[in-house]
Amino acid sequence: MIQASIITIGDELLIGQVIDTNSAWMAQELNKIGVWMKRRIAVGDTWTEIWNVLDEESSGAEIILITGGLGPTADDITKPLLCEYFGGKLIVDDGALANVKNIFQNILKRPMIERNLKQAEVPDVCTVIQNRRGTAPGMWFEKNGRIFVSMPGVPNEMKGMMTNDVLPALQKRFVLPSIVHKTLLVAGIGESFLAEHINAFETALPHHIKLAYLPNYGMLRLRLTATGSNEKILNDELTIQFNDLKNLVSEWMVIDEDVTIQEAIGKMLKQKNQTIGTAESCTGGYIAHLITSIAGSSDYFKGSIVSYSNEIKENVLHVNEETLSSNGAVSEETVKQMVQGALITLNTDYAIATSGIMGPGGGSEAKPVGTVWIAVGNREKIIALKFWFRFDRMRNIELTATNALNMFRKFISGKHDSGN
Amino acid sequence: MIQASIITIGDELLIGQVIDTNSAWMAQELNKIGVWMKRRIAVGDTWTEIWNVLDEESSGAEIILITGGLGPTADDITKPLLCEYFGGKLIVDDGALANVKNIFQNILKRPMIERNLKQAEVPDVCTVIQNRRGTAPGMWFEKNGRIFVSMPGVPNEMKGMMTNDVLPALQKRFVLPSIVHKTLLVAGIGESFLAEHINAFETALPHHIKLAYLPNYGMLRLRLTATGSNEKILNDELTIQFNDLKNLVSEWMVIDEDVTIQEAIGKMLKQKNQTIGTAESCTGGYIAHLITSIAGSSDYFKGSIVSYSNEIKENVLHVNEETLSSNGAVSEETVKQMVQGALITLNTDYAIATSGIMGPGGGSEAKPVGTVWIAVGNREKIIALKFWFRFDRMRNIELTATNALNMFRKFISGKHDSGN
After folding, report:
1. Minimal C-alpha gap between B374 and chain A (Å)
2. At what angle do helices B47-60 and B78-85 cross, to 10 degrees?
């Protein structure tokens, strides 16, 4: 098994001022081509730490991918370190220089300074990976049979290099096994109950097929992973196991693909050639954002009324003033009227509405923080359910959105009576 | 200097199916109490890997914090491993058992199964950290003068344990230095130009004060960090340096605090006792979501019209049909009319409007993918600017939102003529 470690360099990542999303993406891509992940490590901008981590990781992994520490500013020490580590000296790379000049002259249309030119310098012991999306070149080193690749930390620059250069080169260089995943999404059941329910299935799995539980905002993804040498055989084996698993969890299954619930809903709406809109109070546009983060969502999503103030609930969604004053904004009647209003104002086939108290303030004894009403419906029928989420503001917003989308999925599938 | 390593356990994190946000939060909290971060490491659910990483990290760091691998399902091997690593045996902890029972009986209102009861088992060589938000207890171990703390991977459970138990206990246990940060946010200038501009300042900084560049969606945060023994002296020193830095970058400074642009705008609106709404096409509710992710935003945010379809631009925002057919939805005229419509429909003092092509489809020669028009304004004046973002869909949405919020910040500060 060929193993890889990913090293992320930079104080800002180490001390958590910036969330690292690069290494998750890189790990997924490596996994797809059959490279086994050994470790992911974040270190600061410290010479000895970086040096030690290069030594340690190359003692266990064949592939060491490094991101970060290549920018033009003074807190970047990675390039001189790599130069010394691999015993080279810095030289100007013509391709990288032409690239830096081109970016400044033709894209940024700004004058270049000395600091930018320095980005074209690379150790003379590396193979340069040209950066088609930025100024810092990537560098491919080999030492004692190990591959080290250093890339900039800017996500789209790193992704371009990985996709165009690094992954194809690794596939040429190593004989890699096949890794096949199949994932399904379930909702409305606790992790431990599910584990009990499928215990016999899990125990009977062959050694090269593994089951993982991936909790995700009140939902759970179940992933089967098979490792072997023949992709076709693996796929056939995995399909049989996956079908058994699907039968076992059919009661709670949202979809039998590794997609988000907003993607699953998008597919259903497209198939039916129908449209949806949202009327959002407590989610503040987050459901609309989730739906529109999917390319092509304009085929089925028409828009949203984010009615944060009651004035907008009344004026744009036509919620009854009487309802708001006697039942309150967080009530079954209000969210049902919000759905009705959205169906008319947005002129859609379906609508989703939310109203709740996300915290930390705004709670009362009768309606504590985390109380949420969600309604989904069409012109014939509207379903409303009450929830109580007990997390922080952001997590409450996310849980409200996920549950609203799941209620809508059940509604459009005709499963709406079971609730959640 | 007391150093800490954070170890995250779980295949799902290692192979990137789940993004790790825990360790960033933990690193920030450690940093605040003066613990220096050595490394952050993700390893899979593999016995030898976890064992080795415990050995390696405890050779360099005094504090080793571990999250994940404590759930009720079969892919969790952390607890038996810790038991063997520290030479104990598993016993039932009465406090943890009472907690599991209470959660099932009084909160989840579900029957308990054997698997849940097992969560109350802990090695007899640890100090138990009670989990007030979930079923898995935390465990505090000591070995050869090193502290090891194992916590569940569920973010709010881990955060509760860190805040209530782990951080106070670490502060009692070690004599920790003071670490003071001051951060400001700049926009509209490249990293290398800024670095050149403040080069003399950076070079002249005393050894115990460090400057970091933290790029963030077209903006840049500059962070000064001082380390020493006396917090008051550090604060005084840092204030002087920070004021110098503020003067140097005043032209591009958004705010002199470590806050997001939506927080900065919220403060301005609250101070003026004025309101805002958004009319969003290409951002699909994301700006409304950013604004409403701030607690208390209902004081100044009234709502949003997400007009993904032209029908809603016409019917709810009163954009001229003629304008849409002759200039198109992605045009200066359309976004200006969207601002006008939002001011009326939402009845706010200010409005922000966006319309663009986020990709990957929908581009043309005249309006390639990434073309965006943004307008901000009030009843007296509306400013519109054209942008061209060249990233993936999600990043284009984020950049549009950040730039729209920054345009609005300039507008409300009376700096609107400079553009971006």
Report:
1. 18
2. 50
